[in-house]
Amino acid sequence: MFESFSQSWQLLKQSAGILTKDKELLVFPIISGIITIILMITFFVPIFLTAFFGQTNQYAGIITYALVFLFYFISYFVVVFFNTALVGAAMVRLKGGDPTIGDGFKIAFSNLLHIILWSLVGATIGMILNVLLRRSRNNFFANIAVGLIGASWSIASFLVIPVMVAENKGPFSSLRRSVEKIKNKWGAAIAGPAGIGLVFFIATILAIILAVGFSMVLPQAIPIWVGLAILIIVMLSVVSSALNGIFTAAVYSYASQGNQIQGVDAQLLENAVR
């Protein structure tokens, strides 16, 4: 366990090294996060009003599900678009180049049709899993089954975006290629995101503890401490998202090119994804 955490920490540091060279990569998760928040606010009102006031309307349920699916689709599109830009720019760096924000957007726009189609697939899967989870909320084993399906989907689709970027394939071809490339190195789809997630989860908990501690010492400044804690958590989320994109690009590049990648210790990556 400690060896796995150590490897994840080393991979995190190497991904952070790439991010240090290309700080502009943070722009993509920042814009993605802002747009997602706007979408949540925009869709909350109509979905709430339809569900609350449409209880006597036989079409209210259909309208609500349609609005929820539309929200899922647009949200997935935003996330996938900016992840594509991030992964594409990271792959430029891993090939020895010096990516710019423009490079990332150019790569994302060149894959726009594939992004739209993959967003439809992701929204459909997400909607189905959400419905299954809601219907099985009182069944422990059903919840476990839905969780396993979701985890399997995450692993299978782990390399879809880098495949789309590097091989210009459609969503289903990219999914098949992702499964092919990850099946012998499926640990990468778990160890990398889990390691990054664990580090940032601990950092988030520490930020909350510090905010609570300072609020107890200086209660008159509670709004300041709470505001700082929220700001730190948002910053951690942005950095975590960027590092996950870089790690995904590194795994694909290693699976495709072996040792011919720049900025990441290939042997360390090999050990971590076995």
List the helices and strands and how they pair.
Elements: H1 2-21, H2 27-53, H3 60-94, H4 101-110, H5 112-135, H6 140-156, H7 160-167, H8 171-182, H9 187-217, H10 222-257, H11 266-273
Main pleated-sheet profile: none
| Number of beta-strand segments | 0
Helix content: over 70%
Q: What's the number of domains?
A: 1
Q: Tell me the β content.
A: under 5%
List the helices and strands in order: HHHHHHHHHHH
Mean pLDDT: 81
Spatial shape: globular
Q: Helix segment count?
A: 11
- Unreliable spans: none
Measure the end-to-end span: 14 Å
Task: Supply the helix-strand structural class.
Answer: mainly alpha
Over the alpha carbons, how many angstroms does the gyration radius reach? 20 Å
Offer a few descriptive terms:
mainly alpha, 274 residues
Walk me through what this model shows.
With 274 residues, this protein is mainly α. It has one domain (2-273). Helix content is 83%, strand content 0%. It contains eleven helices and no strands. Helix 3 packs across helix 10, helix 7 packs across helix 8 (171-182) and helix 9 (187-217) runs antiparallel to helix 10. The relative contact order is 0.15. The model has no long low-confidence stretch (mean pLDDT 81).
Describe the structure concisely for a colleague:
The protein has 274 residues and is an all-alpha fold. The protein is 83% helix and 0% strand. The chain has one domain (2-273).
